[in-house]
Amino acid sequence: MDAEFIRFVRLKADLTQAEMASLSGVSQAVVSLVEQGKQPISPKLRHKILTLIDNDSELIEQYQLYKETELKARQ
């Protein structure tokens, strides 16, 4: 799980940073810093995100496809 995945999940869930923060038990600033890669993802936040997505395999596959497409576009 990386910063980009956190942002991907939030946007797919149609949540603002403030809403994601509220659901995750952290501040909006923490969500922002994590998404920017300026703060590591804490075990607490990682657990909350996994709970939020309920280990949604389709969402994880969508993210993997997104990353593959992004990598191909950079080449």
TrEMBL record:
Domain HTH cro/C1-type: start-end pairs: 6-60
InterPro entries: Cro/C1-type_HTH, Lambda_DNA-bd_dom_sf
Top-level taxon of the source organism: Bacteria
Protein name (database record): Transcriptional regulator with XRE-family HTH domain
Organism, scientific name: Alkalibacillus flavidus
